[in-house]
TrEMBL record:
<feature type="active site" description="Proton donor/acceptor">
    <location>
        <position position="83"/>
    </location>
</feature>
<dbReference type="Pfam" id="PF00300">
    <property type="entry name" value="His_Phos_1"/>
</dbReference>
<dbReference type="GO" id="GO:0005737">
    <property type="term" value="C:cytoplasm"/>
</dbReference>
<feature type="binding site">
    <location>
        <position position="59"/>
    </location>
    <ligand>
        <name>substrate</name>
    </ligand>
</feature>
<dbReference type="GO" id="GO:0016791">
    <property type="term" value="F:phosphatase activity"/>
</dbReference>
<protein>
    <submittedName>
        <fullName>Histidine phosphatase family protein</fullName>
    </submittedName>
</protein>
<feature type="active site" description="Tele-phosphohistidine intermediate">
    <location>
        <position position="9"/>
    </location>
</feature>
<dbReference type="InterPro" id="IPR050275">
    <property type="entry name" value="PGM_Phosphatase"/>
</dbReference>
<dbReference type="InterPro" id="IPR013078">
    <property type="entry name" value="His_Pase_superF_clade-1"/>
</dbReference>
<dbReference type="InterPro" id="IPR029033">
    <property type="entry name" value="His_PPase_superfam"/>
</dbReference>
Length: 207
């Protein structure tokens, strides 16, 4: 069976500024780099991947580089692993966004785009497409374990796709800083071994 690790980046500067992140390209904080270092040690010891696929956004790419360097594996970047394209909200304070672009009381419909951004359905299609390609690549190259370093929203979409849940599903799969999900896959089954593990982090590093 193929093992698939889905990993979120470490703490970014946006987390300290209380702004909408999404496509805003903030780097890791000092804490985020320390979280990534502990993640790298954990992954290298317990789940060394054959290759890491990573988002091109700084916070995920930096996390992936730290992990790949420690694990001694290849690293491939893909823009489709970027976070939800939140358009005009990217980098905007949550207070300002609540005033200028309030969320509809009933929530935003899956097909509705944020201004200059994408819809949830478009994000789901993006997740399905890159997932299909990376699994096909793993099969062709005989990989036994691959890791994906991405973002909370995109990881949630990847899990929905893995579990075959519908596009209209309201289920969300939360991922903390450097949280790890592990799935085992073959042509018959997709098994979630654990979700959002942060056992590599001490309590004071949990966010």
């Amino acid at each position: 069976m193929l093992e698939l690790l889905l990993i979120r980046h470490g703490q970014s500067e946006a987390d300290l500024l209380n702004v909408h992140e999404g496509r805003a390209d903030f780097p890791l904080t000092g804490l985020g780099r320390r979280q990534a270092g502990l993640l790298a040690e954990f992954i290298t010891e317990h789940y060394p991947p054959d290759i890491i696929w990573a988002s091109t956004l700084k916070r995920a790419y930096e996390t992936a580089v730290i992990t790949a360097d420690r694990a001694g594996c290849g690293l491939k970047t893909d823009e489709r692993l970027m976070e939800f394209n939140n358009g005009v909200l990217a980098g905007m304070s949550r207070e300002e966004a609540g005033i200028r672009y309030p969320e509809p009381p009933e929530g935003r419909k899956p097909h509705v785009r944020i201004e200059k951004g994408e819809s949830m359905l478009e994000m789901r299609f993006r997740a399905e497409t890159v997932l299909s390609e990376l699994l096909d690549d793993a099969e062709q190259k005989g990989y036994k374990r691959i890791a994906v370093v991405s973002h909370g929203g995109l990881i949630s979409m990847l899990i929905l796709a893995l579990l075959g849940l519908p596009n209209t599903s309201t289920r969300l799969f939360a991922t903390g800083d450097t949280g790890v999900h592990l799935f085992k896959l073959d042509h018959k089954r997709r098994v979630a071994m654990f979700l959002n593990s942060q056992r590599h982090l001490p309590d004071e590093f949990l966010r």
